[in-house]
Structures are given as structure tokens and as C-alpha cells.
Automatic annotation (TrEMBL), chain A:
Transmembrane segments: none annotated. This is Nickel-dependent hydrogenase. Fe cation binds at residues 71, 422. Belongs to the [NiFe]/[NiFeSe] hydrogenase large subunit family. Its cofactor is Ni(2+); Fe cation. It comes from Candidatus Jettenia caeni. GO terms for molecular function: ferredoxin hydrogenase activity; nickel cation binding. Ni(2+) binds at residues 68, 71, 419. Keywords: Iron, Magnesium, Metal-binding, Nickel, Oxidoreductase. The keyword Cell division does not apply. Mg(2+) binds at residues 49, 375, 425.
TrEMBL record, chain B:
Keywords: Aspartyl protease, Hydrolase, Protease. The keyword Protease applies. The keyword Zinc-finger does not apply. One of its GO terms (molecular function) is aspartic-type endopeptidase activity. This is Hydrogenase maturation protease. InterPro entries: Pept_HybD-like_dom_sf, Peptidase_A31. It comes from Candidatus Jettenia caeni. One of its GO terms (biological process) is protein processing. Belongs to the peptidase A31 family. Pfam families: HycI (PF01750).
Amino acid sequence: MKNDKAKIKTIKVDYLARVEGEGALYIKIKGHTVTDVKFKIFEPPRFFEAFLRGRSFCEAPDITARICGICPVAYQMSSSHAMEDAFGIRVDGQLRALRRLLYCGEWIESHALHVYLLHAPDFFGYDDAIQMAKDYPDIVQRGLQLKKTGNEVVILIGGREIHPINVRVGGFYKALTKQELNTLTEKLKRARDIALEAVRWTAEFDYPDFEQDYEFVSLRHPDEYPFNEGKLISNKGLDISVHEYDNHFIEEQVAYTNALHSKLKERGAYFVGPLARFNLNFDRLSPLAKEAAHSAGLSPVCRNPFKSIIVRSVEMVYACDEALRIIGQYEKPEIPAIPFQPIAGTGYGCTEAPRGILYHRYRIDDNGRILDAKIVPPTSQNQKTIENDLWQFIPKYLDLPSEKLKYDCEKAIRNYDPCISCATHFLKLTIDRE
Amino acid sequence: MYRGDDAVGLATARHLKKHVPDYVSVLEGSGNGVAFMESWKNADTVILIDAVHSGTKPGTIHRFDASAHPLPSEFFRYSTHTFGVAEIIELARTLNQLPSHLIVYGIEGKRFEAGIGISPEVNTAVQEVVNRLRQDIHSFLKVS
């Protein structure tokens, strides 16, 4: 009955009902000057924060996984880590490795979808992947094959390709055997080859000459390319533990959008995602991924957001490589989850979703009930930077016909792989010229 | 199941499971279009059921022969980072990976906000769709 009460209370919140499917970009141009850029997005997590209140801590990984169909693992990982932080437990050893492997699967499937089916068509002037598939069926097939391998990793470890069901606070419901993981080895080797091809392929695209002085923010781990944990660092001096997130980052209400804008209190807009991870953690990539990046002409600091498609491909190489490394060293853990007792407190979690850092904070009472939740997804954090890019990008291309300018703006936004549920192809885009 | 009437496809599949012979596979999908392509790889006849949001009366049942014609795209939701039903069917058509027969049932939903439970009018449509699906399955079996 307790759960039913919480359900009814949260359903009354109408964020979703008012903004479902709405993503829009509004550009105003006066003569040769851009006078307004408004990027409006729909952000489901605001609703989920209310939805979680009053529920048990153990429901958080499964409920928050529903926020996103393409990065549910990130939500499960950040929520589990935050709960474990609150209860003072640490998931280590092979259980931790298994979580990392699950994350590899999510990165492969998410990046493959974005690189091949969503972003690449923009570089060839196609409306979508369906048009591209008419001319390049083999390339699209390769993308589907890569995505399928990512799906298979998530299915095997998570139990389902979307919204996996095997993750729990403290570990997993079921730990897999070495033999089970070995079934992925050959598939991952093939996927790694496709990912290497993707790096070579995307390196040949024609990139606009566009670089900005961004503040890149990502996790940084002492030894690993970051998935699950680390300090939060930036190229402009940020170096904090995840516990300090709220001291440095703030979410702002902006009049024209229902999504909150996240910014660094000290400096404003910042950039999260593959490009940030790559720039801040190049030295943590596997030798093969580093070599692929070098051969694609990428140096450790790439400031051209359009080249994020190459970086995503490099990260696919890394994720396949890392998955194979984990499987090679894996031994089934003795227990699938660490036993613990929930205690009252506040827990913090931050992991690297495919499109950037995903921060969760929960306050729990001594019955293990969630008193409040804060979830800051990557897209919310990139919003200001997306808008800033457009302010800088549009003036260079003002003379283009409006349709071409719209297309190029879509492409610029897509660099960030934003999470917007839309009723049409991408988003409503309006250009006002005076 | 957490998005109101969006669960109507799952609800229909779960009802249908009780009424079809063993040699008919009833699969539940989570909306990942690319996974659909995989699931119908070796099938000759596929019937896909999903919620739609086209502005008609809640509970309205739409039926499309997707092997013959593209779906009206406005019936299905698109996203910046996933491939929906309409898109994946067209991609599969381009890559010659459509099953010989692909029927799509779209059930008009009323509310898609977070929360568990299907609207009464949409729930009524579930039984009707199950009946129609049983007839479809019967006629496909007769033809093959």
C-alpha cells in the first residue's frame, strides 16, 4: 500500500504530459547578426526524482533505468553506486569487473547507434540512415552488427537488452560463469575490428573548421579509462570528489525550457561526453585505442565537437578491448552481491554514461526509503555548451539558405548525441530573419 | 510498463500468449528497433503490436500491412538517439531484411506519462486486438 500511495502522488506531476516529445531550436537573425538562440529540450529525470520519493532504495536501479532506452546501464550504475556510498559498502573485484563489462556493452550499443545510424548520415548529406543504407548498405550493416554485439553483452550480463534486470545495489542478482562470458569473445573480437574500421572511416569525413575553448569535464580514475568511478576533473582546474559535486555545479531554471540548465558555479558552461573523456583521459586508453586515435589524426586534445564521431569510434575500440580484457581475467565471484544493511544517510554516485557524466544523489531514511533524489543527466549538462556552439557556429554560415543552415545546426547539435524524444525527424527548428 | 498506455503492446502480447499454439512465438520487445530486425530474421510472418499517438480516439485500432507499404511515420515516435518502429521497418526494407509478411497493429494510447496502468478504453482494445490477432494467425496458417 505504501508504494501505491507514492505512485498516485507522483503521477500528478505533469512535466511529461506538457512537454512529451518536444525538442526545439529557435534562432533569430537580424541582418548579419544572430540575436537569439534558444535550444529547448525535454528532460524526463525531473519527473523521476519525484517518482522515487517514498520508494525503497532497492527500486532505484530499476526505476531510473527507465529514464533512458539507450543508456539504462548508466542509470543503474550511478544509482547503485550512490546507494552503496550511502550504506558504506564497496563493490570490488570480479563483481566490479562484471559491472565494467556491462558498461562496455552499453557504450558499444549506444555509440554504434549514434555513429552509424544517427550522426554519419549528416556528414554525407542524407536525411537519415535509411537513405544512407540505399547507397551504403554494407556500412549500415556493419553498424548494426556492432550494435548487436553491444546488445549481446548487455543481454548476457543484464538479462535484457534494454532496461536490464540483473543489477542490484551491492552487485548483481546472478553472477555469470567464465564459460558464459567466453561466448562473447569471438563476437567482441569481430566487433573490435568493425570499430577499428569505424575509426578509419570517420577520420575521412569532411569536418567544419570549428574549435572552441571549452571546459571539458569527466571522471578520472588512477588507472582506468573512466566508466564507473573516479574524481571529477576538468581542463580548467576542477579536481573534486563526486561528494563535492553540488558545491561546484548548479542547475538553473531557464524560462524557455522545462529542462534545467546545469553550469559550473565558478565558470558557467562545460562539456561532458566522449570528447571530454578522451581529452582528459587519453593516457588511460588501451594501446590499440590510442594507436587508432593517432592514425585518425586525433591528438589528445581535440576541440572540434564535430570530430566527436571519431572519438566515439575510438571509444568503441576501447570498449571492445576492455571487454575482452575483463573476460580474459574473469573468475566467477563467490557471491553475486555483497550483503549489507541499509542505514540512513546521503549517497553520491557519478558514472560515465555514453554521452557524459551522470550524477545521482539520494537521501535515505533508516528504513531504506528514499527521502529525496537528484539526478543530473549528461544532456542537461551539455545544454549551455550546445547553445554556445550555435551562437558561434551560425554567424560563420549566415549566408547559407535557411534549409541548409537548419541542417548544419542539427548536425552541430547532434555532435552531443542529446537525449530528446521527438515527434518528428529531429527537432522543430525555426529561423527568423529580419 | 512505467509509461501508462505505452505498455499496451506488452499487455496484448501477454494476453495473446495464453491463446496461441506453441509453434507461434510471442516475443516482448522493449522498443529497441534494431533488436526487432534481429528477432524477425528467420520468420516468414511477423505481427508487431505497439502503442501509437496519432490523435484518433483512445483505443482506436490501426492495422497496417508494412510488408506492402511504409507506415505513416506520424503514428510512431522518433527520437534523437534511438530507432523506432517506423524507422527500423524502413531500414529493414532498404536492406531487404523484411519478413515476407509484416503486419503492424497500432493501438491509440491516451496517456504516456510515467505511471503504471493502462487507460480503460485502451484496455478494452487489448481484447479486441487479441481476437483479431487470433484470426490473423489462423488465416496465415491456412495460407502457408
